[in-house]
Amino acid sequence: MIINLAAAQKMGVKEDIREVVIPLGATIHMEGSCLAAIVKIAFLFGLFQMPFTGWQVWLTAAGIAVLSGTVISGIPAGGMLGELLIVTLYGFPIEALPLITMIGTIVDAPATMLNAVGDNVTCMLVSRRLQGRGWLIAQTNTGGG
Predict the structure, then answer these.
(1) N or C: which end of the chain has fewer CB within 10 A?
(2) CA separation for the pair 8, 17 (Å, rounded)
(3) How far apart are CA 83 and CA 127, in angstroms?
């Protein structure tokens, strides 16, 4: 988190924005975890040749992604809990659990990278929203945040 705060400062994000957005993002805003959950679900649907269609399937996937990105990411070994949730909610056989765990291991590093980088992107988006289109130019002209 300290590195993200320094990077946001170097990018010109104002202190009041970066000091709120990055700590919140580090704890409850996990884009990579959400994306990893969807990848795991899609993998199992493809593996078991089930159609990934219908509102109920999509809403369940979105709910699992939100849980993975906010609640489960704060639990130690929460990825395994999320994988168990996926297998249980969609009614996959228990043999799917080791397969989805392997996928979870593969996507873990990129998901972690996306979680870390996403906080700075969110800082920039919040800055643009609060300060307008020229926020970055205004910051560089006044000497940064």
Answers:
(1) N
(2) 9
(3) 35
- How far, in Å, CA of 19 to CA of 39, rounded? 31
Backbone angles phi, psi at 120, to 5 degrees: -70, -35
The string of pLDDT tens digits covering residues 34-49 is: 899 999 999 999 999 9
Could you say which DSSP state residue 35 is in? H
**Integer angstrom CA distances of residue 115 from 3, 29, 86, 144:** 13, 8, 21, 25
DSSP symbols for 58-92: HHHHHHHHHHHHHTGGGSTTHHHHHHHHHHHHHT-
Structure confidence by residue, pLDDT tens digits, 3-24: 889 998 998 889 999 999 998 8
Amino acid at 46: G
